[in-house]
Amino acid sequence: MSARSQVVLFLDDNPARHAFMDQQYPDDTVIHVYDLDSFRSALSEHDKFDLVSLDHDLNDFTEETGFSSRLWNGEEATGLDACGYMMGFKEKLPEEIVVHSSCPDGAGEMMNFLLSKGIKARWKMFPVA
Fold first, then answer.
1. Looking at the DSSP assignment, which residues form a beta bridge with residue 11?
2. Per-residue pLDDT tens digits of the chain, which is 129 residues long
3. What's the pTM value of the predicted model, to 2 decimals?
4. CA-CA distance, 86 to 11, in Å (whole number)?
5. What DSSP string runs through 44-107?
6. Ramachandran region of residue 73, left (φ > 0), alpha (ψ -120 to 50) or beta?
7. Is 77 exposed, middle or buried (0-12, 13-18, 19+ CB in 10 A)?
C-alpha cells in the first residue's frame, strides 16, 4: 500500500521557487499560487492541505513575469495578508505553516500573527533566490 500523495499549497511570486518545489515534491500535488487572489481561490477550492508554505513579498517579480500587481486593501499584497485570510479556513490547514520568506521583518510579522492565532509556524528560508 503506497503512501497518500500530499497536497501542498505554495504561495510565492518567484517562478524559480515554484520549479524548486516541483523538484522537492515530485509525487505530491503542489498547488502553485503567485498572488493573493489565486491563494484565496485555492483555499476555497481544496478540502485539506498537508503543507502550506508562504512568502512575504509577493510583487518582486511582477514586471518580469506579467503577474497581476493588484493592490489588496489599497496596498501591495503580502504574505501577511495571506495569513489573515487563512484564518477563515483553519479546518483546511496543516498542523504547522511554513514561512519561507527571505525577508526577516516580513517573516517575523507573519510568524507573530500565526502564533497569536494559535497556529504553529516555522520559518524556513527558501534556498532559491
1. 33, 54
2. 456 789 999 999 888 899 999 999 999 999 999 988 899 999 999 999 999 999 998 875 544 444 444 544 556 789 999 999 999 999 999 999 999 998 899 999 999 999 999 999 999 988 765
3. 0.86
4. 12
5. HH-S--SEEEE-SB--TTHHHHT----EETTEE-BHHHHHHHHGGGGGGS-SEEEE--S-HHHH
6. left
7. buried
